[in-house]
Structures are given as structure tokens and as C-alpha cells.
Amino acid sequence: MSQNRKPEQESNQEPSALVLERVTYLREQLAHHLYRYHVLDAPEIADAEYDLLFDELLALEHAYPSLHSVSSPTQRVGAPALDQFEKVQHARPMLSLDKASSREELEQWMQRCRNRLGDVALTFTCEPKIDGVAVALVYENGELTLAATRGDGNEGENISANVRTIGSIPLTLSGEASHLAPKLEVRGEIYIPLDRFHAFNAAAIAEGEKPMVNPRNGAAGSLRQLDSKVTAGRPLTMFCYSLGGSEGDWQPQTQEEVLSTFAEWGLRTNPALEVVADLDQCLHYIERLELRRDDLGYEIDGVVIKVNDLSQQQVLGSVTRKPRWAIAYKFAAQEATSVVQSVDFQVGRTGAITPVARLQPTFVGGVTVTNATLHNMDEIARLDLHVGDRVMIRRAGDVIPQIAGVILSQRPTDAKAVGLPDGCPSCGSLIHRTDEEVVARCSAPRDTCPAKRKEGLKHFVSRLAFDVDGLGDKLIDQLVDQGLVSNAADLFALSRDQLIALERMGEKSADNLLGALKAAKQTTLPRMIYALGIREVGEATAAGLALSFGDMESLMAADLHALERVPDVGPVVAKSVQEFFAQPEHCDVVAALQQLGVNWPAIDVIAPESLPLTGQTWVLTGTLETMPRSAAKQQLIDLGAKVAGSVSAKTTVVVAGPGAGSKLEKAQSLGIQVRSEEALLELFNQYKKEVE
Ligand code: IVH
Description:
This protein is an alpha+beta fold.
């Protein structure tokens, strides 16, 4: 929602009843629409309509300064910058939580609650533990009068101006709030949703500004801004999770009721709340939430379990700043800090040089992490990573650990910048980096660089290629280092004696390996093509090439034009295949494999003439709504059609979308068949079914 406002002439007059009425109406409307937009995620008006209402209110407030109110939606764009934050005393301390990380610990906590409460019925609420910043909001007669950080639990900082900019936090509560709870303290967590975090960082990087290290740091940093106009531009939101206290007649009985009433008043609460009655139900909730963790759209680090009944909470009380009535079940941490001890450069099968950070061993997300990939030099530059830096590392699911950011404030004075080495770390050859690619590559031919050779062999024997059992990475390293193997064919020429002479290789293992190699000799054309390790040729492309050419000789002899006719093969893949076979050593390996008895039988090709649209010429015109035109074109080509740019008597079908003009007219005048995008999709679907 835009924030370009033009001020109106100031007036010393008091506003008329009509103006007052209009201002009240506008404030209510704006608050309502902010609520629909930020809390319910269901806007009722367009941004531009919101802006019109906003501008009208701003103009009236400017014309009548006596109408100024900190609760006006116009205050959300930020107030004048502060010199420092004022300290505020919490009416009741903001507590922290005891932790449990196993079934036993949770069971013990529940038992302790039961022991203290005696023989009473007990239920618990389970809610996600949001990884953000805890805040307290004070509402007096329904108006937000103070927002404070937790600070040390007793004393926090007044961040009201910043919090007023957050669209999902109501400046005025709706419903009966002011009447029933004239003074109310709402506690909760301010955080940054993941999609907005990524979007913010992408924009920051594009502008050459510093990205946020992670959503929690981003939220904390945004709330610490002395200039609330900066905070207004940050993607913050809040989940309210507990009652800090209330004065008046409102007497909720349970945590569940607190949260449902908060929601009625327009406060944002977490829909993932559930009430459970025992340990098993609680563990079941934890299990389900952990499974959904990556889909929640915000970061959590566990589950908070609270005794539901507020009077029972009171009986339980707290010890040393932690309530007895609540506990945090922590998931294994996904994030930790570590120190970059060095950056090594690994050479891949295709010569790509990948920087890898060697880290001080750190336990994160249930495993000890010692390495993190840095992808390429651009990533190092983006992170501004130096050797010696303390870094934030993150694991998501099973993914290789990533470096999420550098903690610049802790950079040691002797930290060293990271540069690309002059030569390939394996063979010393020059490293090339072209303008089209972010990756740097070793320039040596494949056979002369030991690292490329090793990686190529590891790929050759991998599961989707020759699938040789018992030929692991370490063994390949040994075979190459000892000069026993330099290409794939050499593997099949290994003798029993040679194998037995290797480190940690017994007679039995040697026999097993020879058996596995013998069995692997009988393979298929798609596996063979994939095993060659041609750049850009993955498993699916290899299968496509096999189906189109039928045997290795035809593939090796194919020109660019023939290659590009293969489904899913574009100019880049075609060029890569052609360049691969243009190198004699690659053809020599294929021949040697064949000589050693490796066999990949020819297969029946799908003849181009048997494709469904062979001989037809199609023209696409107007807008396609469900797919890019290039994708439609490629699919038509895959089905055998020619796709032309203009309509002529030779055109078979014209696909016309919205905005089609002269081509459609011409087709109609020539009596050529015209189809809709829907019909095109139907055709694609039909063909998909046939191949399945
Ligand atoms: S209740 C006295 N509920 O966890 C209990 N806390 O370690 C008050 N947190 O400082 C907290 N999500 O910042 C509660 N659903 C949730 C929470 C939550 C995150 C944070 C909160 C608190 C910390 C306690």
C-alpha cells in the first residue's frame, strides 16, 4: 500500500461534527481493511482504493492538527526518529521457558504438574514456538498505548513507534474489548514470514544493500531501529500467544479462551493451536508439527505446551523466572554458529571448481557439521566471507549445510579474504571463468586432471549409471592415485592381483568387486549414455537421446540439428553432446569398453514419422495464459510439428489466445483450423497419457 501523501492546507479551526464523523469512519474503515489484509489474509479492496481512503484521512488530519492521534492508521508509516529507546518496566515479568527435548522430559514435566495440582482434570495447549522477538502490547480502553521488548524480563524498551508500523497489529481493538478489559497486556512474538524474508533479501541484494542474516535477526534488527520509517519498510508480523495481565471484568478461564478472544478483538493468533489431554496426544502434535515445519512459512524452534486452565496456572506459579505451567519442547537446532577454518576448492567431474568451507565441527540439527558448500565465487562475494569468520550455519531437512551469513561484528583482525586459486587445485592447469557462467572450471582435458578423472569415474559407477557395487569413492581415489585406472574402460581391465595389492582389499572383496564389474558389463544404452558424464546430460536426457538415436554410433555421429530434434534437448545440450564426442579420447573410451565386452544393446527408435503431429505446421498467436509460448512451441516440436511464425496456406492449425490479431484473421480467411489454448492443453495431455 503506497505511502505518497500530499498534505492539505493547515487550519486553526476546530473540525465540524461532519469532519469528525468522516475521520472516525475513515479510521475504522482503514483499520478494518488492514485487518482483512494482514491478519485474515483476505483483502476486500484493492491497494489503490485503500490508498484513496488513506489519503483522504491524511489530508483531514493535516488540515485539523487537533485530530492527531497515535492510534490513527496514518501513524503506521512511522514517526520522527528517536535518539534512544525509553526504558519501560513490565507490570509483570516477561518469563522465559523451561525446556524439554525428549518424551521422558515432557512426561516428567506433566507429572510434576499433576503432583502439584492433585487429582484434577488437566488439558494442555500446544502451539508452535515461534522463532522471533518477544514483545508486550498494552491496550488501554482498546487503544494500543505501549509496545515493549522483553529486555531482561523486568525492564524492556519502548518500541511503540516501531510496532505501530506493523500492519497486522491493531492500533485499536475491535469488539467489546475496551468495555470488558479497560487495561490489557497482550504478549506475543514478532517475526518475519519466510517468503517475505527471501523477497526482502533478494531486493536488498539487487540494490547492493546488506541482506538480513536470518529471519529472527532481521526481526530484532528491524524493531531496534530508532527511525520507525525504516521499520515500516520491513516485512514484520506478529502472533499473539499469551495474556500478560488484564484489568476489568473480562475473566477468561483458559489459555484457549484467551487466544480465541484475542482473535475476536482483531489480534493475530496462530491457527495451529490445539488442546490435548495427555502425553501421547501431545507427542502426536509435536510429531505432526515437526513434519509440517518446512511448510509453515515461518521459522519455529519447537512447541510450547501450556496448562490450559488459567486458575491451575496460578496454582502452579513460577520458579526462577520460568513458569511451572509451561514448557518448550525444542526441536533439534537447525542453526548454529561456527568458525570458517579454511576454504578448499573441489574439482567436479566437469571441471567445475566449487569452494567448500571447512568449519570448526559444530552440532546442528542432530548432526555434526564440518563442511558447508559455498557454491561459487559469487556466493563468497555475496556473503563477504573471510577465513576466520564466525558464521551462521543452517540445515534444512536433509540438505547439505549452508552458510546463512557472516557475523561481521566478530570478524578477527587477521581474517583472510578468499580468492580463486591461480591453478586447478588438482592438476595446476589454468582456471577459466566465462561471462555466461558463474562457475569457474579447470581447463585441462578430462583425462589429464586427476580430480576430474576421479569424479568422472565415481559418476560412471554410480547407481543410475553402471551401478557397480563395492567400488566406493576411496577405492577410486586409490586406483587413480596409483595409476591403475585413468578412464572407465581401465576399470574392466583390472586384474585380481592388482586389486589384492591395494590397501584394505582382501581376496574376498577383490573377488566380489570383479564379480560386480563383470555383472555391470551388461548394461543398457540409456545408462551407458548417462555414465559417460556428458555435461548437461542427466538421466532423463540420456534416456531421450537413447530413444531418439537407438545406438551409440548414431548418437556419436549426430549433428546439432539432429540433436536438437530430440525432446527436451535445446541448443546448449546439443552443443555439449557434440563437443563431447568431438574429443577423440571420449570415442576411444567407448571403443575400449566395447572391446572389453561391455554391452549396451541397440534399442528401437521412435521414428520421427510416427510422431502424432509429423508433417503438420502450427502457428501460435495471441497470449497463452497457462504456459510460456516457448514451452508450448517445444512441446509441439516434440510431437513432431513444425512451428511457424506466420500463417500461410501450408499452416495446419492456428492456436489463438486473447489479443490475437492479423494472424487469426488470415487463418479465418484461408479457412485454416483455429484452436484455443484449452484444446492445445488437451492435446498435450492426451499425448502424455499415451506415452505413460
Ligand atoms: S509463552 C511464560 N508461547 O519463547 C511463557 N512463548 O523461551 C511465556 N515463544 O520469550 C511465553 N513462541 O519469545 C510462548 N507460542 C509461544 C511462543 C513463545 C515463541 C518465545 C517467547 C519467549 C520464549 C521463551
